[in-house]
Every structure is written in C-alpha cells, then in structure tokens.
Amino acid sequence: MKITIDLDKLWATRATLHGTLGLVPTMGYLHEGHLSLIRRAKAECDHVAVSIFVNPTQFGPSEDLSKYPRDLERDLRLIEPLGVDLVWTPTAEVMYPSGYQTWVEVETLTKPLEGSLRPTHFRGVTTVVSKLFNAVQPHKAYFGQKDAQQAAVLRQMTRDLSYPIEIVVCPIVREADGLAMSSRNKYLEGDERKAALVLSHALTAAKELYDAGERDAEKLRRKMKDVIAAEPRAQLQYVSCADYETLAELDAVTGKTLLSMAVLIGRTRLIDNFVLG
Ligand code: AMP
Fold first, then answer.
1. How far is the CA of 148 from the centre of ligand 1 (A)?
2. N or C: which end of the chain has fewer CB within 10 A?
3. Is this structure's pTM higher than 0.85?
4. Do residues 103 and 127 make contact, with C-beta atoms less than 8 angstroms apart?
C-alpha cells in the first residue's frame, strides 16, 4: 500500500497501476460505511485508491472544519488489510496552492436540501472531486447513499464534464440500532446518541405510511416532522420528500423518491435518508 501526499508521487504511483482503478474519496476518520465502499471497489476493480482529505472549501465559515475528527494512523490501520494499492493524503496546500482560483459548480441540483442551508458546500465538493478525478484518473468512483444529494450532484457533474468515470453509489451502513454511521457521530454526548435515533425512526415511520398506501408527499413530510418534534433534543433543519433524480419536492409520490432530512442533535448536525419505490 503506497501512501503519498504530493501530486508528482501520486502520478508516479498511478502510472504503475494497470487495469481498472476504483477511487474512494473520503475525509478520513473512517468507519464501516467508508470500508464498505472500499470493499465494493476492491471487488469490482483491479486496483483501489483511497483519498483522505478534510476539504476546507466544503465547510462554511461557521462549520466544524477545525474540530472535524482526524486520525490518519488509525485510518491507515483500517485500510491496510483491505488490499488498497494507493492512499492519497494531500495537504490543503497541495490541493489549493497559493493563488488558487478555479471552481466547478453544478447549478440547479445544489440549490435545495443541503444547499439551502450550506450555500457554498457543493461548490467545494464538486471542485475537490473534479481535482481528485483529474489527479487519480479512476475508472470508477465510489460514494455513499448516505450523502444522497452529493451523489446526485456528482453524477450530474460527471455527465456534464464528460468524465469517463462510472459513479457507483453504495447503500447506507447503519449501526445495529439504525443510526446511520457518520464520522460526526463521535460528537454525540450522553443522551444525544439515543436521541439521534429520531432520524431513522422518522424515516421508518414515513416509510410505513408509504407501505400502507399513502402517496401524499405532504403527509409523509408531516409524519417525519411529528416524529422529530417529539424528541426534545432534536432541532429540525429540513425534511424532504423529493423526486430521486431532480430533488424537486413532490406533491404526490409516483416514482423513485428520496425521503431525506437534516436534524441538529445538540450541536451535532446529522443527515439521513431512505429511498422509496
Ligand atoms: P466522508 O468522509 O463523510 O466525506 O464520506 C466519504 C464517503 O463515504 C462519502 O461518499 C459518503 O457518502 C460515504 N459514507 C459516509 N457514511 C456512510 C455510511 N454510513 N454508509 C455508506 N457510505 C457512507
């Protein structure tokens, strides 16, 4: 397993990898969700590259960049047994050298949901993923359904910019009690861990309504809001029942649909989603 920081060393190692290459972009502090992406890449590609980079440009000014959890040694220990060929751990200076001024933006899909609360977030994501694609030149790139809007935005970017890369979206990995795994779960203190179950409970309640035949999107949104309102430690940021492709809010559920939400548990911001249909 080759670990590189600098671009020229990355390119030198990349040149030795023949056959198909799968890339798994991460911000580190790895958990089973990340490892499931790496295992899938390993199963589908001749070689696997993992990037670990806490990307400053996708954090807003009041967000948790400086306290985002980091533990590179632990990450490398977790990756080592999975047969990864290349780990790229660029610094911010390698990714955004002094004088940096080029950005990639997806216009419409970035506006609702996460984009409505984090207006500069996706510009940072699409820019850094473009740079990862250009530097690593993978055949396939692996992302989690956990960040459903991110996956939709990156599919759009890949199509629009004609990257010859297949975007593979992998299922959400959850703790045994249903909490979606996230590096940010580490912030949950005391009772907050239990309160965080309100996200998966709200999604399950809406899905049960849907399974019982409900197709009124507002009723599904209302159900999720009610479940969240009943948890005193939870502060709702948004709930959504939207078209899976366009992310536009629905009146009636007819095709593939994304139920999603962002909720503050104390000071920790969590997101989760289910796909219907
Ligand atoms: P992050 O390090 O949070 O930027 O996540 C890196 C990748 O792992 C993204 O594509 C995420 O969607 C994915 N991911 C994060 N959590 C999970 C999870 N619980 N299940 C599946 N994929 C995940």
1. 10
2. C
3. yes
4. yes
Q: Tell me, what's the pLDDT at 64?
A: 85
The CATH number of the structural domain formed by 2-170 is 3.40.50.620
Residue 98 has pLDDT above 90, yes or no: yes
Q: What are phi and psi of 2, to 5 degrees?
A: -95, 130
| Three-state DSSP state, 108 | coil
What is the DSSP-derived secondary structure letter of residue 165? -
Residue 122, pLDDT > 90, answer: yes
Place of tokens 């490398």: 76
Q: What is the CATH architecture assignment of 183-276?
A: 2-Layer Sandwich (3.30)
Residue whose CA is at the smallest distance from ligand 1 atom 13: 144
The pLDDT of 250-255, averaged and rounded, is 98
Q: Calculate the dihedral angle through the C-alpha atoms of 55, 60, 66, 69, rounding to the nearest 10 degrees.
A: -60
What pLDDT sits at residue 219? 98
- E strand or H helix that includes residue 133: helix 121-136
79/88 Cα distance (integer angstroms): 12
DSSP 171: P
In this structure, are residues 170 and 36 in contact, taking their beta carbons and an 8 Å threshold? yes
Indicate which atom in ligand 1 lies nearest the CA of residue 146: 12
**Domain extent listing, the chain:** 2-170, 183-276
pLDDT exceeds cutoff 90 at 43: yes
At residue 75, the pLDDT reads: 98
User: Token pair 């970035």 is at which residue?
Assistant: 110
Å from CA of 147 to ligand 1 middle: 7
CA-closest candidate to residue 216, choices 241, 239, 238: 241
